[in-house]
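Dissemination and training. As part of the outreach component of the grant, students in the summer workshop were shown how a complex can be specified as a set of sequence lines and then modelled as a single object. The example used during the hands-on session is reproduced here so that future cohorts can follow it. Participants entered these lines:
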Amino acid sequence: QVQLVESGGGVVQPGRSLRLSCAASGFTFTAYAMHWVRQAPGKGLEWVAVISSDESDKYYADSVKGRFTISRDNSQNTLFLQMNSLRPEDTGVYYCARAMGRSSPQSRYFDFWGQGTLVPVSS
Amino acid sequence: DIQMTQSPSSVSASVGDRVTITCRASQGVSTWLAWYQQKPGKAPKLLIYAASTLQSGVPSRFSGSRSGTDFTLTISSLQPEDSAAYYCQQADSFPLTFGGGTKVEIK
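and obtained this result:
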């Protein structure tokens, strides 16, 4: 069965960096685009970034552009999110999610999600 | 960016009631819209995509429809396990955006 397991969260000070990982299993990782979606405490969902299956395309939310970098290691079935210059407003649970299909627009829906990893940004 | 306006922000209904949630897009998104259900402390779950296509395994009491830039999620007969937050999401263009959410409570 499809499994996505995030790790790397934890308390971080404003201005510092953190790298999140998402280990994927149960499907052909190299065939799917992957997304990061976050949720501030008690708030709604916010899409963060997407990376295509072959890393050729990447898109970001305006709120993280220039500070966050999405990447993947297809040999290790792992998705990453490098977060630099963190701000208090980046606080939240970060979910990795699989794109539902291999082509647009199906690749812009999320059919499997991890359990999330919490990133509190606080001094 | 495409703004998604969801209403109501919360609804309280009895078991067996029909519940309707609306999502309005700030510009046309064709049928590229999904609905997700999220229970407290859990990851969201895909219910409907392409405005009206039920994801595999989702009960048939959930349905979706579209009228122009207005989208509706309907629960035909509310069940206790449907207590959750519901979010719409447009898949027409980047950045992908979600509605603000609707909390469904059981009376």
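Chain B has a mean pLDDT of 97. Students were then asked to discuss how this feature might be tested experimentally.
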